[in-house]
Write a structure and sequence with these properties.
Length: 73
């Protein structure tokens, strides 16, 4: 854990990670790239006020999710 992150930001990142894993990447409210549908974005916090988490659903026998970037506002 990065100690400079406020608790609400850290909590939103943990909640996003759990939601991504529980839904195998198909989180309600996430959006897919029109060109690459395996690349997805998920708003962080209430109405996305904290930022965006970006992740990729990797093709494999069992889907693997890679959290690629978190952009904070």
């Amino acid at each position: 854990m990065e100690t400079s992150l406020p608790g609400d930001v850290f909590g939103a990142i943990v909640a996003a990670t759990v939601a991504i894993n529980e839904t195998r990447g198909m989180v309600p409210g996430s959006t897919a790239s029109p060109r690459y549908p395996q690349q997805r974005r998920l708003p962080l916090g209430k109405n996305g006020d904290l930022g965006i988490a970006e992740y990729v659903i990797a093709d494999a026998a069992e889907p693997h999710i890679v959290l690629t970037r978190i952009q904070l506002y």
